[in-house]
Amino acid sequence: MLERALNSVASWGLDRVGRGSVDYVVSNTMTEFNRRVLPFVWTYDLKALVEQVIDEATDVKTFVLRPNQHWPGMKAGQHLEVLLKEGDQVHHRCYSPSAKPHGRLAITVKRKAGGVVSQWLHSTVRAGQVLTLGKPRGHFTLGDPRVQRKVLMLAAGSGITPIASMVAQCLSMPEGERPDLKVMAQFRLPGDVIFRADMLDWAARGVPVTLALSRSQGGQATEGLPTVDRLDAAQILRECPDVAQRHVYLCGPDGFMRKVVQALMELGVPARHIHSERFEMAAAVHPPGDEVGMVDLDGAEVVFEHINAAITLKASDQGKTLLQLANEHGLHLEQGCGKGACGTCKLTVHEGQAHGNVLGSSVYLCTSFPASRTLVLGA
Questions:
Q1: What is the pLDDT of residues 96-116, one digit of tens each?
Q2: CATH number assigned to the domain covering 290-378
Q3: How is the beta sheet containing 354-359 ordered, strand by strand?
Q4: Angle value at C-alpha 231, between 229 and 255, nearest 5 degrees
Q5: Domain ranges of the chain
Q6: How far is CA 329 from CA 69, 323, 354, 357, in A?
Q7: What's the pLDDT score for residue 282?
Q8: Distances in Å between the alpha carbon of 27 and those of 30, 42, 103, 185?
C-alpha cells in the first residue's frame, strides 16, 4: 500500500514538473535507500507504473502505463520489451505500445499457453505495480506519406497493435497530408476482436475498415463494420481493388503472414511495398542446400546500403547467417533477440535474394542467409 502511494506521488511529480526536472533531482540524490523505497523513479532503468488494466477481448488485456523519466519516446509501430526476473533468469517479451495522452502508453497482451510473460501479466499484474521495460526498437514504422500516398494496413489477432499505433499517427496528420488509408483486420470470432471501438472511430473518421472473422460463416455487418470471411487474395482484391498500387503494412501470426504475402504478390504488389513485422519466433530455418539452389559464396558480395558498406564472402562463409557475416566483418549492426522475432535486425532486400526468415522484401538477418552472388540490403 505504501509503495503504491509513493508511486502515485512520483507519477504526479512527472506530470507536474516534467521528466527532466525529476531526472535532475533523482540523479543527484541516488542512494541505495532511495532505490529501495521508490524504485519507480530512483533508478537508472526504464520502468513504468501500471495505471489501468482493461479487459480488451477474450484472453486479451490492455495495460495503460506511466513510464518514468527515462522514457525516450517512440515511433508508431515500434516495440519494447517487458522484462520479468525469476531468480537468476530474466524473461523478455516484445510488445508494440501505443501512445496515449499525457505521457502515457499502452501495451495490449494476448495470453498465450506456455507464454511465461503473458501469463504473468494476465494473472499477476494489477494497477499500481511497476514493470521494467526495454527501450523502444524496431523499424516497422510508417514511411514518408509524401512517397507512400496509398497504404493498406493488414493485421490478424494481436498483430493489430502496431497497426493501430500507425493508424493513429496517420489520423493525427493534417487531412491533406495523410495517406489514402485502408485497414483490414482478421480475428477468429467476434469475441476475439481487439480495438473494436478504435476501428469504429477510424471508420467514422473516413478510414475504410474491413473486419474478417476466420471462423464465421458468411459476411455480415457487425457494429457498423463490414464483416467478411477469412482474408485471401480474392477477398483482399474485392475490398481493395487498387491493392497493387498500395504500400502494405502486415502483422500477425507467422502462418497468416506467409499466406498473405503470397496472396499480395499474386495480386501484383511489389515485394518492396510489403512491410512486415512478426509477433512470434520464426520457424526453424537452415542454410540453403542443394534442394533450394545453394549458391557458391566464394567472392559473393553483400551490400548494406543504409551504412554504405559491403562485405566480400569466402567459401567458408557458407552456413553463416547474414548477421553473423556482418559481425565477423566488423559491421556491428543493430540486433535484438537473435531468434527472428523482434525485428530489430530486419532490413529490406533491394537486389538479389536471401534464404530463410524472409517475408516479402523483409529479411531478418539473424535467421537468414545469402542466396545470390550479389545481395543488396537497406533500410
A1: 998 888 889 999 999 988 889
A2: 3.10.20.30
A3: 309-312, 301-304, 374-378, 346-351, 362-370, 354-359
A4: 125
A5: 2-133, 150-278, 290-378
A6: 37, 10, 18, 21
A7: 59
A8: 6, 8, 21, 45
